Amino acid sequence: MSIGLGDSANWGKGYGNEATRLALGFAFNELNLHRVQLTVFDYKPRAIHLYEKLGFQKGGIYREFLQRDGRRFDMYLYGLLELAWEARERGRSNPEQCRQHLRLTW
Prior knowledge:
Blueprint: H1 15-30, E1 35-41, H2 45-53, E2 57-68, E3 71-81, H3 82-89, H4 95-105
């Protein structure tokens, strides 16, 4: 998964958040995926903040993966499981609460 807003005039308006949430809803609710993963470079703190806010967990680091402008940058691997997404969307902070909710409603 990847998202990009090239024009900085569009940054900070929630477009990335909305687009990512819509894509995740489609991935989990329509495609029935169990996991969504992405990579992001360490020089993208706004993207990292968004992904973590949406529940993505850092699963690994590809150290010094990219050389750009004479510097080396790490690439982070993030993943989000369907259960964690459902818990967050239902306003629960604990995936176990979501499991219990799913057991009770199914």
